[in-house]
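Re: NDP structure - here you go.
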Amino acid sequence: MYDAIIIGSGPAGYTAGIYLSRAGFKNRLITGYSEGGQLTTTTLVENYPGFEKGIDGNELVKNMRQQAASFGTEMTFGFVEKIEGESSPFTVHLDSGEMLETKAVIIATGSSANYLGIEGEAEAIGKGVSACATCDAFFYKEREIIVVGGGDVAMEEAIYLTRFASKVTVVHRRDELRASDIMVQRAKSHQEINWVLNATPVKVHSDMMGMTGLDIRDNATGEVRHLKADGLFVAIGHHPNTEFLGGKLELDAKGYIQTQPGTSKTSVPGIFAAGDVQDSKYQQAVTAAASGAVAALDTLEFIENK
Ligand code: NDP
């Protein structure tokens, strides 16, 4: 019997493992298919404290994994298909067929950026197409950038990118922006931002050197035209990775796991949530790591009181 099964291998999951193992609690972490989570899709992480010159995202999560393993967290590469049981203890079912008995579960499965799903996009991810301006803007100094989306994040990303890019163009599928008035005003006050509204992206073009442009279709006339660009930032929302829960836990209006304020406690005692899967707002590596520590401490308290 495990004290805790941790699901997810980003900063939240590894931090939970470090805390639980260090406290002498038997735990196993199930990585998911994209081991390391979203940090592995970026390059240099410059805003995680403790690394004056920044650290490669892959290296950062590798260090976290080794730190958790050094204290005794067991690791299994795989995917959790189901958590069985209405109350503690639970049975966690892996895609390998293995079943793990555990007193507690920490869900740290993160969220995934939505992409457009258009021709040429998938092969250009990480080579011109990004879903995170704060991660990758630095690499587009004096380059031409397109931001797709009309929400608050698209406005924020466009404003942020003006610090780096020579030209920023926002492409949005409707005439009207979804973003709040204040964010729209802020973005519109930047003369460097160009606006292409009522247009649907249809194809990403790239060559050996990276992205070269985006084809967009004018929704009023149907005309397709080419916009030259070195980078495309897709800002059309994220989705939390909760499908495997099958409705077991209460979710908030946006589909994120609902936790009791200031804790990692979900609607089922003994199941805790940490990181982006329960945070639609901050979604930073450092906030995810912090919430992993909170989940581990809540788990320790739960087991000790049981
Ligand atoms: P939103 O859901 O607010 O916006 C997503 C945008 O992407 C919409 O404009 C939508 O278009 C567009 N979109 C969705 N799917 C597609 C597609 N397939 N092709 C083209 N465009 C598409 O998500 P955000 O990530 O911007 O924001 C998430 C939440 O975080 C929001 O609640 C936001 O308010 C909040 N937030 C608040 C901030 C602040 O207040 N400062 C800062 C950052 C985030 P359409 O409008 O046509 O549906």
